[in-house]
Design goal:
mainly alpha, two-stranded antiparallel ribbon
Length: 331
């Protein structure tokens, strides 16, 4: 409904971005939930813990209701306030002559609100680094490392096409053959679609943010089907370099305006006339959009790597194993 609302209000860029953002967010959240400890149904909780849990749930429910209701009232108050009528006309009339693009939404993001967008991608990079730092030394619990039930219940001498992606040299085998082959074919197609959305973003729906998300979804599919070890053995992704290049490109674009005698992140457009291609115009916001694209891809890959590496790490020893090790050491 949010995407439909954006389309209804003539903002297809935001609708496309919202749709792809929800896909990436959902996958990353599910990967995070994958490594949470499982509930042990056989163990009955203590009476005091049940009472404390109920009190905590009531407290959390009341707190979430108050905060959610307050944000809803604040949004309602802002949306019902009278705003100047010339805000929309200002952007519509100045997007092309001053921003160099006919896509008003994209021009607002990379030109009129360029400093805000630079801060957003900086925050995105900081979040990705934080996730990586938190999960760098994390080891999942023993019960979270179990293989699927259909693989655990098979006898060792049974011939089957069930492939363990943690040990297979190539996951395009057995029951994973069809999805693995399709996902590998999808990667270059996603690259072309991503490049298309990026190049048309200044004048048509698209842009660096949604283009980077489309490329990130293609990499996420590779990890999901082929596994972490196979992907990183076949492709050198290096998300830190993506992020560093993205922030450097966006910042350097803004600094370039200072050398030209204009305020930070001021857009400038160059016009060329080439023999074969004809008339071309290149806006400096293009290089800013390159930074946004690289930062989105790098941040998504870094968080995906931090989550995906849990499957190849040693699990945490259980309490029983700790007791046995301590006993053996004392003996």
């Amino acid at each position: 409904m949010t995407c439909v609302t954006f389309v209804w209000f003539s903002a297809p860029d935001l609708a496309l971005t919202q749709l792809v953002v929800e896909v990436v967010t959902t996958v990353l959240i599910l990967l995070g939930l994958r490594w949470l400890p499982r509930r042990i149904e056989e163990v009955s909780p203590l009476p005091n813990t049940v009472r404390k849990a109920r009190i905590r749930r009531v407290r959390d429910f009341l707190l979430s209701t108050v905060v959610g209701g307050g944000m809803a009232l604040l949004s309602y108050a802002m949306l019902t306030r009278q705003t100047p009528n010339d805000i929309s006309s200002f952007y519509l009339s100045r997007a092309l002559p001053e921003g160099g693009g006919s896509n008003v939404v994209n021009v607002m993001l990379v030109d009129f609100r360029g400093f805000d967008t630079l801060g957003e991608i900086t925050v995105l990079g900081a979040v990705a680094l934080t996730v990586y730092a938190l999960l760098r030394r994390f080891r999942p619990s023993r019960e979270s490392m179990q293989l699927p039930a259909q693989q655990r219940h098979l006898a060792p001498d049974v011939a089957t096409d069930l492939v363990n992606p943690r040990q297979a040299s190539d996951t395009a085998l057995g029951y994973m053959m069809v999805p693995a082959v399709l996902v590998r074919l999808l990667l270059p197609i996603a690259l072309v679609v991503s490049f298309y959305l990026f190049m048309r973003g200044h004048n048509q729906p698209g842009g660096g943010f949604v283009a980077g998300l489309v490329m990130s979804v293609a990499f996420i599919l590779q990890y999901m089907v082929a596994g972490t070890q196979w992907v990183e053995a076949q492709m050198s992704l290096r998300p830190m370099r993506w992020m560093g290049f993205g922030l450097f490109s966006a910042t350097l674009t803004g600094i370039g305006a200072l050398f030209a005698g204009y305020p930070f992140l001021t857009t400038h457009t160059w016009h060329f006339s080439l023999p074969v291609l004809g008339d071309l115009h290149i806006a400096s916001a293009l290089f800013f959009d390159v930074g946004v694209y690289a930062m989105v891809v790098g941040s998504t890959l870094l968080m995906l790597t931090a989550l995906g590496h849990q499957s190849v790490r040693a699990h945490k020893p259980s309490n029983q194993a700790k007791v046995i090790a301590a006993t053996e050491g004392a003996a």
